[in-house]
Design brief:
Radius of gyration: 18 Å
Number of domains: 2
Helix content: 55-70%
Strand order of the largest sheet: 1-5-6
Order of helices and strands: HHEHHEEEHHEEHHHHH
Length: 237
């Protein structure tokens, strides 16, 4: 695999994440036999340098998952308000070209333009499909955990996980470790082991999905190199 250069943007993101969350990440990483740099790398690869705001945690509405959970049984109203790649002549893969509109007629706009558009699309999805289905179609937090996996984190519902993750970043960090311990990928604990040995491709395959592993694998490796170098420098200072 080609080694990607560390960029100033990646270094800045790694520094920001470590300064905010490195203490808790370090304790939990040590307990599971991994480097804290690997955890920082996941945050950087998934969310870059997005800062947490209470009640405004970073989210991503996966429109193709909303379709699976609700839209396929309500095609007319779904197609009136949502689009995604590979559906109804929309180009691209399912996770690409995801768009929404609140009014018909009216123009479609990107769901993933920024956090304002993400939250606007989620609000529309909640109105149309109900809170639980809509929220379960999202990922959340600096590590972008999917909320349809709420049971792996000990929550009774996606909405309960959503509320907890809106309160503080501590829930994101603890939830990430619970997810990695409990997700069968292909066996329980596999994600933890991938991080221990820095198997970025298999981690990405089981965390992000096999289709996107070629994108996230190198992104994770690049973020790890930046984080490891910066943390080493901090310890030596």
């Amino acid at each position: 695999m080609r080694t990607l250069p560390r960029s100033t943007e990646v270094e800045h993101a790694a520094t920001s994440v470590f300064n905010r969350l490195g203490g808790l990440m370090g304790v939990l990483a040590s307990d599971t036999g991994m480097e804290v740099s690997t955890v920082v790398a996941v945050w950087v690869a998934e969310g870059g340098n997005r800062l947490f705001l209470p009640k405004r945690a970073p989210i991503r509405l996966e429109v193709h998952q909303l379709f699976e959970g609700w839209g396929k049984r309500n095609r007319q109203i779904f197609d009136t308000h949502f689009r995604f790649g590979g559906h109804s002549l929309q180009p691209g893969q399912p996770w690409e070209n995801q768009e929404f509109r609140t009014e018909n007629p009216g123009p479609f706009t990107s769901v993933h333009h920024n956090q304002n558009s993400e939250y606007a699309a989620l609000t529309l999805a909640q109105i149309l499909s109900g809170d639980e289905v809509a929220v379960a179609s999202c990922s959340i937090g600096g590590c972008q955990l999917t909320m349809n996996a709420h049971g792996l984190l000990g929550f009774d519902s996606a909405c309960q996980m959503y509320e907890a993750f809106q309160q503080s970043e501590r829930a994101h960090v603890v939830g990430f470790f619970d997810f990695c311990r409990n997700k069968p990928a292909p066996k329980v604990g596999e994600l933890i082991n991938c991080l221990r040995v820095k198997d970025w491709t298999n981690f990405a395959k089981n965390y992000n999905g096999p289709e996107t592993a070629p994108i996230y694998g190198p992104r994770l490796e690049n973020a790890y190199r930046a984080a490891a170098g910066l943390i080493t420098e901090k310890k030596a200072a």
